[in-house]
Specification:
With 598 residues, the chain is α+β, with helices and mostly antiparallel strands. 46% of the residues lie in helices and 19% in strands. InterPro entries: GIY-YIG_endonuc, GIY-YIG_endonuc_sf, GIY-YIG_UvrC_Cho, RuvA_2-like, UVR_dom_sf, UvrABC_protein_C, UvrC, UvrC_RNase_H_dom.
């Protein structure tokens, strides 16, 4: 509800791009947002009904609105990003993983050292990165040191001190890991040529170094210096091997950033791939915690700005899966086919893998969060009005109409609750009638739950297509539960999900967690039903065979099976052994029945 003060603020907002801030009545910052048109965007919060509970709660708390006008939406994005990080408003996307990343430093010295660091010092040194892990940095530095031996000491190698003979070469020189600049064994010009090549390598450009090494190898070979040629060839192999580990895309795709996003109810995952000279030289995925009902477009725009700032990206073009307005300084491309499309798909695959890894970690570290997220996802995927915390699944089992049974398995919070499993003997149906059997067991199950005042499930799943689903619905109608419990059917062939009154099935992504839970329920119901059915058939077969012997009753059969454990052992037993269990008269009858031909 808008107060008079808010009404006035809304009416006086400019139509320019900018950043808006919502405050509560105590002056606490609740939310920061950016807009292409401040008046239109801010007014939209108050002019429509919000389905999302968090957005609804935010709007109720707003007591004051402030805004900052900027020149473009790009400036608004940058300002919004900085303000979120500085103030961490309660209702904003949470920018996670804000740690200090490693960089590769080329020190500002006469003979520069190259080393990893997490501190950026403004002393004229060059810094490349940041990298997402120290492991990546060490791999790259090992490659560089294998190609271009560099000094590791921290001596002041000024021209005067070297000429005065102040320093002596160390063990690193004798091991071949340093070229000895401290004794003037390599000129500053040659050393800097190597540094130039190293700059290209950390930028992802291997072409110049490979060309240089090939020229050197050829020169050594022509001069019959085969050992030196072999040494250069080994460096070429190292460089080509490292380059092969980078995903080579297309040499014409150069200096491009690729972004994609996957999201669920609570989080968005933005993946970033940096391309240089046709190879992926960096990959990073950013996890964004939703606070409101942010769209993928909003989350991706936030992720792009954050990641480009964090990694100091200067690329003038980005590839994304859908159109984004990031201002005039960045060219946004939405690839439709070819290598460009494939690289966006690769980015999406990386985001999905990251999301799955997060799920697995959360399942171990914070199982409640995992369950809450899974339930919210299932509610959304299955178009339910409530989260399916309690699910029951039914399956019929019979072979040619013999011993018809049914099973009901129960999942609570996405996990089997085996103490609540139930099995049913079909009582009112004659012959192999799956539809009538399903109707009977669903009716019996929920009539009992109602009579005993037990909690009802939020979702019922029947194993089968439209016929079995209709039978389940008929049973619920008879009990007055139609519309109070959601019920769906799953058909085995294409894993279609059927809804009552809807002839068109729902198809879920084969990799979706929702479908996996439903498949697990169906498979568990099938296993439980088949086991019950087999046990019943075995029991029936054993009982029938022994009880067909004239003069042998049920108690005798039980005594025999309790002692001998199986019918085959009863058959093989001697008359004396049988007599010790059931007496000589009945032992003679059974022994004669099985051995009369002899």
């Amino acid at each position: 509800m808008k107060t008079p003060d808010l009404e006035i603020q809304l009416k006086t907002l400019p139509k320019s791009p900018g950043v808006y801030q919502y405050y509560d009545k105590k002056g606490k910052l609740l939310y920061v947002g950016k807009a292409k048109n401040l008046k239109k965007r801010v007014s939209s919060y108050f002019n429509k009904k919000h389905d999302n509970a968090r957005t609804h709660l935010l709007v109720k708390k707003i007591a004051n609105i402030k805004h900052i006008v900027v020149n473009s939406e790009t400036d608004a994005l940058l300002l919004e990003n900085n303000m979120i990080k500085n103030y961490q408003p309660r209702y904003n996307v949470m920018l996670k993983d804000d740690k200090s990343y490693p960089w590769i430093c080329i020190k500002n010295e006469r003979f520069p050292r190259v080393f990893p660091t997490r501190r950026l010092i403004k002393d004229g040194s060059e810094y490349y990165g940041p990298y997402t892990s120290m492991k990546t940095v060490h791999i790259l530095l090992d490659l560089i040191k294998g190609l271009y031996p560099l000094r590791t000491c921290n001596y002041d190698l000024s021209k005067e001190k070297i000429e005065s003979g102040k320093y002596k070469v160390c063990l690193e020189y004798h091991l071949g890991n340093c070229l000895g600049p401290c004794e003037d064994k390599i000129s500053a010009e040659t050393y800097h040529d190597n540094i130039d090549a190293i700059r290209d390598i950390v930028k992802g450009n291997f072409k110049d170094s490979l060309h240089r090494f090939r020229s050197q190898m050829k020169a050594h070979a022509e001069a019959m210096e085969f050992e030196d040629a072999q040494r250069i060839k080994e460096k070429i192999d190292i460089l080509e091997g490292y380059q092969a580990k980078s995903t080579v895309v297309n040499p014409s795709i150069n200096n491009v950033d690729v972004f994609s996003i996957v999201s669920d109810e609570g989080y968005g995952y933005v993946n970033f791939l940096q391309l240089s000279h046709g190879a992926i030289i960096r990959s990073h995925t950013l996890e964004l915690k939703k606070k409101l009902d942010e769209s993928d477009e909003e989350l991706l725009a936030i992720g792009v700005i954050e990641i480009r700032q964090r990694f100091n990206s200067q690329s003038s073009e980005i590839y994304v899966p859908f159109t984004l307005d990031l201002g005039d300084g960045i060219r946004v491309t939405v690839p439709k086919l070819g290598d460009k499309k494939r690289i966006v798909e690769l980015s999406e695959r990386n985001a999905k893998y990251f999301r799955m890894e997060r799920f697995k970690q959360t399942k171990i570290i914070d199982p409640d969060r995992h369950v809450n997220r899974l339930m919210a996802q299932m509610k959304s995927d299955l178009r339910l009005s409530v989260e399916p915390r309690h699910i029951e699944c039914f399956d019929n089992s019979n072979i040619q109409g013999t011993n018809p049974v049914a099973a009901c398995v129960v999942f609570k919070d996405g996990k089997p609750s085996k103490k609540d499993y139930r099995k049913f003997n079909i009582k009112t149906v004659t012959g192999p009638d799956d539809f009538a059997s399903m109707e009977e067991v669903v009716f019996r199950r929920y009539r009992r739950l109602l009579n005993e005042d037990e909690p009802l499930p939020q979702l019922i799943i029947v194993d089968g297509g439209k016929g079995q689903l209709s039978s389940g619905v008929k049973a619920l109608e008879a009990l007055g539960l139609r519309g109070k419990i959601a019920i769906i059917g799953i058909a085995k062939r294409l894993e279609e999900l059927f809804y009552p009154g809807d002839s068109i099935p729902l198809y879920l992504d084969k990799k979706s967690e929702t479908l996996k839970v439903i498949q697990q329920l169906r498979n568990e119901a099938h296993r439980f039903g088949i086991t019950f059915h087999r046990n019943k058939r075995s029991s029936a077969a054993i009982t029938t065979e022994l009880e067909t012997i004239s003069g042998i009753g049920e108690k005798t059969v039980v005594d025999l099976l309790r002692h001998f454990r199986s019918v085959s052992k009863v058959k093989a037993a001697t008359e004396k052994a049988l007599a010790e269990v059931i007496g000589p008269a009945k032992a003679k009858i059974i022994f004669t029945h099985y051995h009369q031909e002899e």
